[in-house]
Amino acid sequence: MRTRRLGSSDLEVSVVGCGTWATGADFWGAVDDQQSIRAIQAAIDHGINLIDTAPAYGAGHAETMVGKAIAGRRDEVVVATKVGIVRRDGQFIRNLKPESVRREVDDSLHRLGVDTIDLYQIHWPDSATPIEDTLAELKRINEAGKFRYLGVSNFKPALMDAVRREFELVSLQPPYSLLNRKIESHLLPYCREHGIGTLGYGSLAGGVLTGKFGQIPQFAPGDERSRFYDFFREPLWTPIQQLLDTLRGIAAQRNRPVAQVAINWALRDGGVTCALVGARNADQASGNAGAGEWELTPDELGLIDKAYKQHVAPVI
To answer: Quick one: which of 259, 265, 257, 255 has its CA closest to 302?
Structure first.
């Protein structure tokens, strides 16, 4: 497994990270908790050391599963979680008020079963709370030893500037995949300029970039992917399948899963520090980890770029 330094921190993270949105069991349909735990453990067994989670995933359920999975293995992992999204009456509420932040960090530490969080990320901006108030509270929490480094998720440069005036900012977590390249124009250059690491989420675009769907899927009740992602309906579905034909060709030549090709693309030079990928079971986790063992060649990247421009760029 290849590793990279995360921004200005001393955290050396695997280029493939373990995402746990699905582990929360409230957005991607039913999941088996024991399989979720085994998936995280398999990820660690295969060299993944960054485990990313959030209280918002299943109202704390994902954090609890992570805590069970890493019990006895704390020194093998970089624990990353988030703050600022609370659940109320089934709704996701942005709340970065100091009193809420204080409560959230203690709850996360308890669920994760750790004394300190390696990377604490502000999940989403909260326009109702001055960022300075949030950062002042986070500084107190940091000085108390409850987390080591601060990151943000879904932030734009102007707000990251505000964070950087008060705090060392080591990472940004934005959406990034072959089907969502918006951050290439401004966010990735900003992060490189300021020495900020990047953890890309949605690396497989809800699973469509695994290439496993031969036709538009009918997801099980409780699996909200078709609502959240446009990729599972026209006019995007057919062009994506044409792009996937190129990925399948590369995968066949390399004797690798299609998913590994898509993950590797996100990690290419000019991509993200770490690609976050979820897994429902141990086989998926070990398969994802395999992407960290090899790299796409310039010729392969050229083929992918050509297919993207021909099929997907005109409609996305």
So the answer is: 265
pLDDT confidence of 90, banded at 50, 70, 90? Answer: confident
Q: And the tokens for 314?
A: 């005109």
Q: Is 120 a catalytic residue?
A: no
For 4: left if phi > 0, alpha if psi spans -120 to 50, otherwise beta; the answer is: beta
Q: Is 254 exposed, middle or buried (0-12, 13-18, 19+ CB in 10 A)?
A: middle
Average pLDDT, rounded, for the chain:
95
* Token pair in block for residue 225: 């992917």
Which of 263, 267, 310, 289 minimizes the C-alpha distance to 51?
A: 289
Q: Where are the domains of the chain?
A: 3-7+10-213+266-294
Q: What is the identity of the amino acid at 107?
A: D
- Alpha carbon 208 to its chain centroid, in Å, reads 16
Q: What is the pLDDT of residues 199-210, one digit of tens each?
A: 999 999 999 999
The CA–CA distances, whole Å, from 77 to 49, 51, 288 equal 4, 7, 17
191 CB burial (10 A radius; 0-12, 13-18, 19+): buried
The candidate with the shortest Cα–Cα distance to 48, out of 299, 303, 293, is: 293
Class for the domain spanning 3-7+10-213+266-294? alpha beta
> pLDDT digit string (tens) for 143-201?
999 999 999 999 999 999 999 999 999 999 999 999 999 999 999 999 999 999 999 99
Reference 251, options 287, 205, 201, 206; nearest CA is 287
- Mean pLDDT computed over 282-309: 98
Annotated catalytic residue within 57, 176, 201, 308? 57
